[in-house]
Amino acid sequence: MYRARACYGISHDTNRVTVALHYRLLSFDGDMTLWDFEAGMHAALERTRTLLLERRPHMAAALVDITPMIALRDRILVEESAAHLSFAEIRRRAFHALLAEHDRPDEALGDELYTAYLQHRLEATALYSDTAPFFAGLNRNLRLALLSNGNTHPQHLGIADRFDVIAFAGDAHRAKPAPDMFSHALLHTGCSPAQMIHVGDALDTDIAGANAIGATSVWLNRDGRANETAIVPDYTITTLAELDALL
């Protein structure tokens, strides 16, 4: 674990007296922070591709793998019209676009593919190996929040009962880095930003959002990516176990 920027209440100068900061609220991102969304997504797309080829065998040449399915989702994601869409709606539209571009529009089949994908993804998505042990050893006096731009509910992973607050983008909240979900968690728990520490894998949403409201930001960088942005986290860790030193 290393520290990237100074945070109110914690000294980074060894010649000064360190003031302990007592956190009361620990919030997390979900996808790629507590569970492996990417692995679940790829497995679900493979199974959905199999279903599609059962319905449309002649599309096999266009769908030799799931690459076109991912590319369509990514293309829709960056369109200006997608700015206020949920990730779930973007995925649904991607299946409809796939049929329109590689076969013919089919509203019923597009929705069937989307429903099947969601079910497969829930079945295939798993917690990271360090998540359950971390929660098992966590101080029960800490208030916990899940603040997610995605749509995987922690109840499907057996950890929903650990959270005091669960908030998703689209459920009356704007997506991170907007302050909506952070403010919701603070209001619900009666905590101040200085008492909040937020952990996430995404610099542009989790870290930028936490920094903007004055919470302590922790970048969970599991794969050692370089930070090529101007966004500076308070701390960077590679596993959840490293959070113990802060808490």
Structure description:
This protein is α/β, with parallel strands linked by helices and 247 residues long. It folds into 2 domains: 2-36 and 127-245, HAD superfamily/HAD-like (Rossmann fold, 3-Layer(aba) Sandwich), CATH 3.40.50; 37-124, Four Helix Bundle (Hemerythrin (Met), subunit A) (Up-down Bundle). The protein has helices at 37-55, 67-77, 87-102, 107-124, 131-136, 180-189, 203-213, and strands spanning 2-3, 25-28, 143-148, 165-168, 196-200, 216-220, 235-237. Strands 1-7-6-5-2-3-4 form a 7-stranded mixed sheet, with helices on one face. Helix 7 links the parallel strand 5 and strand 6 (216-220). Helix 2 packs across helix 3. The longest helix has 19 residues, at 37-55. The protein is elongated and about 60 Å long. It starts with a strand and ends in a 10-residue tail after the last strand.
Which SSEs are present, and which pair or pack?
Blueprint: E1 2-3, E2 25-28, H1 37-55, H2 67-77, H3 87-102, H4 107-124, H5 131-136, E3 143-148, E4 165-168, H6 180-189, E5 196-200, H7 203-213, E6 216-220, E7 235-237
Parallel strand pairs: 2-3, 2-5, 3-4, 5-6, 6-7
Antiparallel strand pairs: 1-7
Helix pairs in contact: 1-4, 2-3, 3-4
